[in-house]
Specification:
Elements lengths: L1 H16 L4 H4 L10 E6 L2 E5 L5 E6 L2 E5 L7 H9 L6 E5 L5 H4 L2 H6 L3 E5 H7 L11 E3 L2 E6 L2 E7 L9 E5 L4 E3 L20 H14 L5 E3 L8 H23 L4 H5 L8 H4 L3 H10 L5
Helix pairs in contact: 7-8
The structure holds zinc ion.
Zinc ion binds next to loops.
Length: about 290
């Protein structure tokens, strides 16, 4: 049981790193993926397609992209951006290492886009992706791009979803892109195999809650543009479920016991299937799969 789960974890981590997801495995028609751009606030837009939400600062100085979804979509993503602005895409910041956020790196690098990411994102990608897909500029703590009358402030947060997570604060437009640490249509995913942690998830969300004002627009890794109160609701849900799972672990519950205990019952209508979240929580709270 333990070996099988571990093996499944390793395989899924490998597939994520390679940018393969369930959709791709099903041989989906990438051309059928609908791409659209939503204005968020100020210079900031969000491009929705398949994979992580793309943040865009668009202005006279060019385009800064946050994340780039999957490689088969790159040409159409670039075309969709050209539908909004004639300025060139100059910079790309990866929020973290997962393939649904960095899958287009090689293609955008080949278009001349300079890629930024936290040091650990690059470290995890080296040897697993084409050389051209690697971030060219890395930072351990923070970096800031100054263009479009905007400070695009990217900063490393505690190991939350992975150990290389960055948040991006567009200070001029008052928009936060939180990568996959925050999502509105799924429970949190603590990717332990990529260095994610429960405590870091709570700490990173607390940072976002502390930075956001009542009018700050929040771009989640997946889902809809949100407000500070939505991050608070997400964090509070984690605390409630964490308390319940901790009690079960203290009582010696197996993971199967946790899965059938209804610890997420009132939240599933909003956030869906809790299994992956509970698996991370269970392990982080001392349970052995
Ligand atoms: Zn992710």
């Amino acid at each position: 049981m333990r070996t099988t789960l571990l093996f499944q974890c390793l395989i899924s981590a490998l597939l994520v790193l390679l940018g393969v997801n369930a959709h791709a495995q099903q041989g989906d028609d990438w051309g059928a993926v609908e791409l659209r751009v939503e204005h968020v606030a100020g210079s900031i837009h969000m491009l929705i397609g398949r994979g992580g939400n793309i943040g865009l600062s668009i202005g006279d100085d060019g385009v800064v992209m946050i994340d780039d979804q999957f490689a088969p979509l790159s040409a159409r993503i670039a075309e969709t951006i050209r539908g909004v602005t004639n300025e060139e895409i100059r910079f790309l910041i990866n929020t973290h290492v997962h393939g649904d956020h960095v899958g287009g790196n090689e293609n955008f690098a080949n278009m001349g886009v300079l890629i930024f990411a936290n040091d650990k994102v690059r470290m995890r990608m080296v040897g697993n992706v084409a050389h051209a897909a690697l971030p060219v500029v890395t930072f351990s703590d923070t970096t800031t791009l100054h263009l479009n009358d905007e400070q695009v402030h990217a900063f490393h947060v505690p190991p939350a979803h992975t150990d290389g997570d960055s948040f991006i604060h567009f200070r001029g437009s008052d928009v936060l892109h939180l990568g996959d640490v925050f999502r509105t249509n799924n429970f949190p995913y603590i990717d332990i195999s990529s260095g994610g942690t429960l405590q870091g998830t709570l700490d990173a969300l607390a940072m976002a809650i502390g930075m956001a004002g009542p009018d700050t627009a929040v771009i989640p890794g997946h889902g809809n543009v949100s407000k500070r109160e939505d991050i608070v609701e997400f964090r509070d849900m984690i605390l409630v479920v964490m308390g319940r799972v901790a009690e079960l672990v203290d009582d010696g519950a197996s993971f199967a016991d946790v899965l059938s205990a209804g610890t997420t019952a009132e939240y599933e209508a909003k956030w869906g299937d809790p299994e992956r979240f509970l698996s991370g929580l269970y392990q982080e709270l001392g349970g052995q799969l």
